[in-house]
C-alpha cells in the first residue's frame, strides 16, 4: 500500500496522513490482497479523511478478481471497476506470425491476455485504487506524474514539502496553523517583491494553489482532483490495448494467409479457434467497459455545477476526458469486431475454396466416367460369347473397334468442352 499527495507537487507519504492539506488530494493505491488484509485500517482512515467508509457490497466488488467492468455510487463516493486489455507480461513473442510463434505458443499467449479488474473508490479528496499484485499501472503513473513537475524543487520548496509532510503527520490543527503561517509568509513575500503581472500566469500562481495550468487543454499538468486521475488511469488502461491489437492483427493475418493458401493443408484450427474465442471475450469486456463509462458520464451530468470559475472549468475537463475515454473504448470495440468479421470471412472463404476444389474434382471424375462409359459398352458388346457377332473373325476387327472408341472419346471431349464442362 502506497500513499501519494498530489497538489502542486507529487509527494509520496510513508503512511496514512493525519489530515488532508488545504489543497490537493490523496491517492492511495494497494494490491487486492493487501487491501483485504488491512481492510479495518483502511475503513478507519477513510472515515477520518474522507468522511465515510466503503459499503460491504462494494468491498466484495473490489476483492472480486472476476468482476466485469461496472459503475456504482453512493452519496459520499463513487465506485468504478474497470477491466484492462493487455498482452500478458513476456508473451509478445509467443503470438503467431510469419517470423515466430507456433500454434502451441499462440494458445499460451491467448490464455495469458490480461483482463484483470482495477477498482476505483472516488471520494471528494481521496482516490483509492485496488489492483492486482502484478499490475504495472501504478508504477507507470508514479513515473509519469513525477515527470510532470517541470523543475526540480529548490531548497526553499523542498523545505516547504518537508513542512507539509510534517504538518500532515501532526494532525488537523497543526496542519491548519502551518498552512496559515505559510500563506501569511507568501503574501508578505509577494508584497515585498512586487512581482510583474506576467508572473501571475506561472504554475502555482494563478489563484489555484496546488494545481498547474500551463494552458488551455494542457495535458502535461498534474491532475487537479481524484476524478481526473481516475480517468487518466482508465484511459491508459484502454490504450494499452494498442500493443495487443498489433499482435492480434499479425496473428490473424498469418492465419488467414494459411487458410487461403493452396500450398498445403491448414492445420492450425485450434489456434484459430482460440483466437476467435479471445475476440469474443474482448468484445464482452469492451461492452462492459462502455456501459460502465456511460453510467459514469450520466452520473457526472447530474453533479451540481460549482459556482467558482476554476471548479467549473475542471468539471468541464472531466466531461471531456470521460467522452475521450468512451471514444477510445468505441474504437477498441470497433477493431475487435472488425477482427471477428475478418476471421469469420476468412473461414467462410476457406470453406468456399474447399468446396470449389471439391466441385472441380467431382466434375473431372464425372467427365472421366462419362467418357469411359461408352467405351465399356463397346468393350462389353464385343466381349459377348457369340460366333455370329460382326468383325469377330476378321483380322481388322480390333482396329475397327479401337477406331470407334477413339472417335467416341474425341466426340465426347469436344462436346464437354463446348458445354464448358471442362476448363481450359
What can you tell me about this protein's structure?
It is a single chain. The protein has 424 residues and is α+β, with helices and mostly antiparallel strands. 58% of the residues lie in helices and 9% in strands. The chain contains twelve helices and seven strands. A seven-stranded mixed β-sheet has the order 2-1-3-7-6-5-4, sandwiched between helices. α6 packs antiparallel against α7, α10 runs antiparallel to α11 and α11 packs antiparallel against α12. It is rod-shaped, with a radius of gyration of 37 Å. The N and C termini lie far apart (75 Å). About 13% of the residues have low confidence.
List keywords for this structure.
9% strand; alpha+beta; 7-stranded mixed β-sheet
Structural class determined from secondary elements: alpha+beta
Give start-end ranges of low-pLDDT stretches: 151-159, 172-219
Largest sheet: 7 strands, mixed
Number of helices: 12
Morphology call: rod-shaped
Overall average residue pLDDT: 77
Helix content: 55-70%
Strand proportion: 5-15%
Can you list the strand order of the major beta sheet? 2-1-3-7-6-5-4
The total strand number stands at 7
The SSE string, one letter per element, is EEEHHHEEHEEHHHHHHHH
- Rg is 37 Å
Q: How far do the termini sit from each other? A: 75 Å
List the helices and strands and how they pair.
Elements: E1 2-6, E2 10-13, E3 25-31, H1 32-37, H2 39-50, H3 56-63, E4 70-73, E5 78-83, H4 103-111, E6 117-122, E7 126-131, H5 137-147, H6 155-170, H7 172-193, H8 226-239, H9 241-260, H10 269-302, H11 309-382, H12 397-418
Parallel strand pairs: 3-7
Antiparallel strand pairs: 1-2, 1-3, 4-5, 5-6, 6-7
Helix pairs in contact: 4-10, 6-7, 8-11, 9-11, 10-11, 11-12
